[in-house]
Each structure stands twice: as structure tokens, then as C-alpha cells.
Amino acid sequence: MRPPRSAFYRSVTDTTVLSDELKTYLDEEKVYATVATVGPNGHPHLTVVWIKREGDELLFSTTVSRQQAKNLVRDPRITVMVNPPERPFLYAEVRGTATTTPDPERALPDEMSLKYTGKPYREFNPASVDDAERVVIRVSPTKVTGRL
User: Fold this and answer.
1) pTM of this structure
2) Does residue 124 form part of some domain?
């Protein structure tokens, strides 16, 4: 009997939808994803965010004053990298287009903060009362690759 193949040797997928394994991971774990946007000078701008899934789309929260939001208003191309720290050879790279919608109720940061910290966002981050307007970034995948 052959031993199971390690995660390092799993085949790389190439599709436009999230795999079932990735969906489960995003739904059940506290995932810290790295978001890449295109900066004003053309260089990548990377940010670590809390992330959630709705169908095959990914969502995260930011403010209109942060660089990633400014970048996405100018150029909606985005890449999200999900890389579980406990399984370093597994990853998913989600390339896509981002849309930005206002979140005046700050519903998404509250939802995410409860999942990640067990506290409402304003309790977790009291300084957030001074935040600029909150927006939801919705990533619609155009290409999903990886081993997750």
C-alpha cells in the first residue's frame, strides 16, 4: 500500500470557483488572508485582513481612508491569498474584481469581530469610533488556483 501524498505534492487547481475544502476552511476557521491591490505607483500593496465567504465571493471590511480601498476605487483588480499557518504547503490564490459598497451600520466588522475575538468591533477596537466611513469589499473571482 502506498503512503498518502503530502500536501506539498497535491495537484494545483485552476478554476473560477472556490473548492469545497476552501469554502469549509473559510466558513469554519478564523482565517487571516493577505489581500494584494495595485498601488498608485503600480507596485503591489499587501494587507492582512479578516475574511468571510458568501457563495464563491469573498468579503472583507476596510475604511475609505485606507490605501487598499483607495487602490480598489482606482483599479478594482485584487488578489486574495489564503494560506493556513498549520498547513504551509496548502494555499488558495483568488484573483478577481472588487466592488466597494458602503457599510454605514458597520455590520461586517461587527460580524467578523465576533467570530475572530468574541467581541463587538467597537469593544475589540475602541479607537474605531474615529474610523473613516466603513466599506465592504466584495471579491468576485475570475481565477482560483492553489492546493486548497
Assistant:
1) 0.88
2) no
